[in-house]
Design goal:
1097 residues; mainly alpha; 21 helices; 0% strand
Length: 1097
């Protein structure tokens, strides 16, 4: 049956090859682990074309011959339907192109409308400037407000003084915190220096251990070379002595040296297997070292990333130093201005105290402009309060105007984004047209393949065609369903696009409305800009002073950042030292791997030599009796089992080492995660400290809201771009169309909600602007009536004092022009300071985050660095100790091999006396050298031969022994002899206690007479002496001696216990039987009995 199996396998292989060669172009046939060229091309088309979907027709067998034409026609109809669908998609794409053209035209019209609005805005601005020049003549009438402004300025100055004192207190608290941080930094520096010293000591200790290990390896190499030289010398002496000996006649005493030679050979084999086991262990250790090298490479990459981080921190520190200098200069300027203001305030207070009463000029101005007298302070206060309310309303109107400008800018950006989306959609349509063309090409290719299948591959139809038809139809139905699903998704996407376009039109309409309202609000607000100049100036001064105070607080923080940067540099140095230690360890591992390879080469040479000796001794063993061969095979089996156990133990030790390395790597990873978490925590703490230390800025929330709004708009633009990419990916890959369509639907809903919210907010804003405009119109009308009355009175006064009015008008015009110029300059300065403030805030936040990262790293390093170094040192020491232990074991193994080689010399000298056997061994050596590469096969054959020999020899030996024992039992002269023979029979037949009790072996009777047949065989005297000898010697040894004695030739055979032939041939056979009994004895001592028929002597 075993011979028939391979032939059948070959036959089936030939059949499979023939069928494969015949069907290699089939589109539907797919044998096991074999894919045809057509299916490969079909898969390639599936990968290139997004319309192919997950359906793979290459794995379906053909249908029956009777229905193939129907299937081909059905497939043809389906392909035609797909072509029609593709044409419909092309038409829809053309419609989309037309709509996109219309949208682009609308965009152009909107751009033109916006330009027209800008021109109208410029005209309105020119008109407002003209009206402002007319109103500048009336500014002279408002000189009475200067006193009120002076009073307000004094109040504001007092508030600024109080705020400045609070800021000084905050600055003092910040200085105290900085001192604490400096103290902690000094402690960290001392700790880093201590850790660096410990690292240096650890590196020196590791280098000493590395040098010691190198010396030990050099000694082991010299010992191996000496051993190799001795082996070569032994080989030469063996060859010389083998040629000098003559052929000798074998004698009965020769089996003893042969047994000794076999024992020595077994020892050599044991040593060889030990060396091989050590080689396997070294190979596993080399693999572990390679893994540790990979870990070292990862650590080097981490070091490089840390270096990059350090360079970035240094760059930031340089920039912060420059900014700190600028802030110091600004702080000095602020202090000087503060001192000047205090002096001016003191002078004004002194001047007021020295004045006896109100100025007459001031009273005259109040009477001219307000028609009030200084004796009516209540009415004057009411008029001043009304003026302040008007200023507040102007400020609110200005803020609304700024918001409207922002909305216009946002709408312009939205228009640009829509234009970009239109261009993207145009490019997508072109891509879709290309994909449709590629799909048509794929359909043509499929038609050609169907024709080829129809014309050339009809003979490949098998009996399972009906099942393939069902599967094919199912796949076609799936393809139809998928196609319908894709069409629905495409229509849904088209509908969503139309909704987006409609929303765009609504948004453009709202933009035009907002622009018209903006032009009206600008026309109203330009008349009020003149009164806002002083308020803006005061606000800018306050913002500048606040920024300067904030910069003063940030200077100390910058110094701390510099110190932390230096500490980070020290930390990086320590990390580099650690990386150098890791590299040295890798070099040590590399040296160990090279030494392992050297030892493997030497061990291979020793193995070849031992195998040669093994082949010689095995040939000698084969030339002896079959019993010796069986003993050697049994010992060899036992030795292989022992070697297997040793290999398992070595594997367990290597597994333990691997687990230790994995634990070490896991520990490092956890520590890195802890470092990162601590850095994040300290970042948050520093951010909170910064926010607490910084004074409240009235404009910062508004600026932050503007920044968040800008980021939101940027995110929205990026989001719309990603949505366009998702649409493109949906049309290119039909397999993921459904999931991406759902995502796109959700995103469009969110966008629509956002646009709806924006539209509602804009409407609310317009309503608020309209209401404020109405109120301001009423107020302006009232003021206009008052002003007209004042103008009439002034005209009457002008007629009375023309000269005074002319000079006053000239001064008023000059002051108005000066104020206008100052107003423009302050507007420009405000914009510049706002931009600088935003940039400075961003940089300050980044620098504070970097400072927090450094502080976190230093604190974490202070807590965990010492423990990390201790763990690394302990692991390195344990690895060195393990390496030293392996070196000692290798030295012991080499000593054992050397001793075994010395014993082998003695055995070879003893074996040289058997010249005829050596001649046969030399011939066998020549034949076995060619079979060194087939050692595993020889070992398997040897085990099979051992089993066969055991099976055959066991039956033969048992049969002979049982026959002789039965004859001896039959001719035994008395019951005592029969009792002893029965014990031997029970041992040979491996009887248990019950069986021995049945045959009567457990009776405790006394042995009388002359001591039994064994005593007479062994030469004993009385029965007591025979009992003592029986207790001292084992039953097996007694029986062997009995067989040796009975194997000698005798004159008569009447008194013999066993009927043994006395011829020379019979003597030789008896010697062989003795050898077999010895072999059976050896096997019984090393192996448990496997059956009731095994020999257990």
């Amino acid at each position: 049956l075993q011979s028939v199996g391979p032939e059948q396998h070959v036959g089936s292989s030939i059949t499979t090859t023939t069928v494969t060669s015949t069907l290699e172009d089939s589109w539907f046939w797919d044998p096991d682990n074999n894919i045809s060229s057509t299916s490969s091309s079909s898969k390639k088309d599936d990968n290139e074309s997004p319309s192919s979907g997950p359906t793979d027709l290459t794995t379906i067998p053909l249908e029956a011959p009777a229905s193939e034409s129907d299937i081909i026609e059905r497939l043809q109809r389906q392909l035609n339907e797909k072509l029609q669908q593709l044409k419909k998609q092309q038409l829809e794409n053309a419609l989309l192109n037309e709509k996109l053209g219309q949208v682009s035209g609308e965009n152009r019209e909107l751009n033109e409308n916006i330009e027209e609005l800008d021109r109208q805005h410029e005209v309105v601005l020119e008109n407002l400037v003209a009206s402002k020049r007319d109103l500048q003549a009336q500014c002279s009438r408002l000189e009475a407000e200067l006193k009120a402004k002076a009073t307000e300025s004094e109040t504001a100055l007092q508030q600024l003084q109080a705020r400045f004192e609070r800021l000084e207190q905050t600055h003092a608290q910040t200085c105290q915190d900085n001192e604490k941080l400096r103290t902690e930094t000094a402690k960290l520096t001392a700790e880093l220096e201590r850790i660096v010293c410990e690292n240096v000591e650890a590196v020196a200790a590791l280098e000493r251990q590395l040098q010691e290990q190198r010396d030990e390896r050099a000694t082991a190499d010299e010992l191996c070379q000496t051993l190799q030289a001795e082996i070569e010398e032994l080989r030469q002496r063996t060859a010389d002595e083998a040629a000098e000996f003559v052929v000798a006649v074998p004698t009965p005493e020769q089996p003893a040296p042969s047994a000794e030679l076999v024992a020595e050979l077994e020892q050599l084999r044991q040593a060889l297997e030990d060396v091989r086991t050590e080689r396997d262990n070294l190979q596993k250790l080399t693999a572990e070292l390679d893994r540790s090298e990979h870990i070292g490479q990862l650590e080097r990459e981490i070091g490089e990333l840390q270096n990059e981080l350090r360079s970035v921190i240094i760059d930031n520190s340089v920039q912060l130093e420059g900014k700190a200098k600028e802030y110091d200069e600004k702080l000095a300027t602020l202090r000087q201005e503060n001192q000047t203001l205090r002096e001016s305030l003191a002078n004004e207070q002194t001047a007021k105290q020295s004045e006896p009463g109100p100025d007459g000029r001031v009273g005259e101005i109040i009477r001219q402009f307000f028609d009030l007298d200084l004796t009516e302070p209540d009415r004057l206060a009411e008029r001043l309060q009304a003026t302040r309310d008007l200023d507040a309303k102007l400020a609110a109107l200005e803020r609304k105007l700024i918001d409207a400008g922002k909305e216009i800018n946002f709408l312009k950006a939205e228009n640009s984004r829509i234009q970009h989306d239109k261009d993207t959609l145009t490019a997508d349509l072109m891509q879709y047209e290309k994909e449709c063309a590629s799909l048509m090409k794929n359909n043509d290719r499929l038609l050609e393949e169907l024709e080829n299948v129809k014309c050339n591959k009809l003979e490949t139809i098998n009996e399972n065609a009906e099942d393939s038809i069902v599967v094919l139809e199912k796949q076609l139905d799936d393809a139809h369903r998928l196609n319908r699903t894709l069409e629905e998704e495409y229509r849904e996407a088209h509908r969503k696009l139309e909704e987006v376009l409609e929303e765009k039109e609504e948004l453009l309409t709202s933009v035009s409305t907002l622009e018209s309202s903006e032009s009206e609000s600008k026309a109203r607000t330009l008349a009020l800009e003149r009164s806002l100049a002083e308020v803006r100036k005061e606000r800018d001064e306050l913002a500048e002073r606040l920024q300067q105070l904030r910069d003063a607080g940030g200077q100390e923080a910058e110094q701390l950042r510099t110190e932390l940067t230096s500490m980070q540099g020290q930390l990086t140095t320590i990390n580099e030292d650690h990386a150098s230690l890791v590299r040295k360890l890798q070099q040590l591992q590399h040296t160990s791997s090279e030494n392992v390879r050297t030892w493997e080469g030497k061990l291979n040479e020793m193995r070849q030599l031992l195998e040669a000796r093994e082949s010689e001794l095995e040939q000698a063993r084969e030339s002896t009796a079959a019993a010796e061969q069986q003993q050697q095979l049994a010992a060899e089996s036992e030795r292989y089992r022992a070697e297997l156990e040793q290999q398992r133990e070595a594997l367990e030790s290597l597994t333990q080492q691997k687990e230790n390395l994995v634990q070490l790597v896991t520990t490092k990873h956890n520590e890195s995660v802890q470092y990162h978490a601590e850095i994040q925590r300290l970042n948050q703490l520093l951010q909170a400290e910064t926010e607490r230390a910084a004074p409240a800025c009235p404009d910062c929330p508004a600026l932050r809201e503007k920044l968040h709004e800008h980021e939101r708009l940027t995110d929205q633009i990026q989001f719309l771009r990603e949505k366009s990419d998702i649409l493109t990916a949906n049309l290119m890959t039909e397999q993921s169309n459904q999931r991406q369509a759902l995502q796109e639907k959700q995103l469009l809903i969110e966008q629509r909600d956002g646009l709806q919210r924006d539209l509602e907010r804009l409407r609310q804003h317009l309503l608020e602007i309209e209401e404020a405009h109405t109120q301001e119109t009423v107020e302006l009308q009232r003021r206009y009536d008052d002003t007209r009355q004042q103008l009439a009175s002034l005209e009457r006064e002008v007629k009375q004092s023309t000269n005074a009015l002319t000079s006053a008008s000239i001064r008023a015009n000059q002051q108005a022009e000066t104020l206008q110029a100052q107003y423009q300059l302050l507007l420009q300065q405000r914009d510049e300071l706002g931009a600088r403030l935003s940039a400075a805030d961003d940089r300050d936040q980044k620098n504070q985050a970097a400072l927090t990262n450094l502080q976190c790293a230093l604190e974490q390093f202070q807590m965990n660095r010492e423990r990390d170094i201790e763990l690394a040192t302990g692991s390195i020491r344990s690895e060195l100790e393990q390496a030293r232990t392996r070196e000692e074991a290798l030295k012991d193994t080499l000593k054992q091999v050397q001793q075994q080689l010395a014993d082998a010399k003695t055995g070879l000298l003893a074996a040289a006396r058997i010249s005829d056997q050596l001649e046969i061994s030399q011939v066998t050596v020549a034949s076995l050298k060619a079979e060194l590469t087939k050692r595993d096969e020889r070992y398997a054959a040897l085990e099979q031969r051992l089993q066969e020999t055991e099976a055959s020899q066991a039956d033969k030996v048992e049969k002979t022994l049982v026959k002789n024992l039965v004859i001896g039992y039959a001719v035994a002269p008395n019951a005592s002899d029969r009792q002893q023979i029965m014990k031997l029979i029970s041992s040979v037949l491996t009887m248990d206690q019950n069986e021995c009790t049945k045959v009567g072996l457990h009776h405790r009777g006394t042995v009388g007479g002359t001591g039994g047949w064994l005593n007479s065989i062994l030469g004993g005297g009385g029965s007591g002496e025979a009992g003592a000898n029986y207790n001292k010697e084992s039953l097996t040894e007694a029986f062997v001696k009995f067989l040796e004695k009975e194997s000698a030739p005798r004159a008569t055979a009447s008194s013999s216990l066993l009927n043994i032939v006395t011829s020379p041939a019979a003597a030789t056979g008896t010697t062989s039987s003795v050898g077999e009994q010895q072999q059976q004895q050896h096997r019984w001592q090393h192996q448990p009995p496997r059956s009731h028929r095994s020999v257990a002597i």
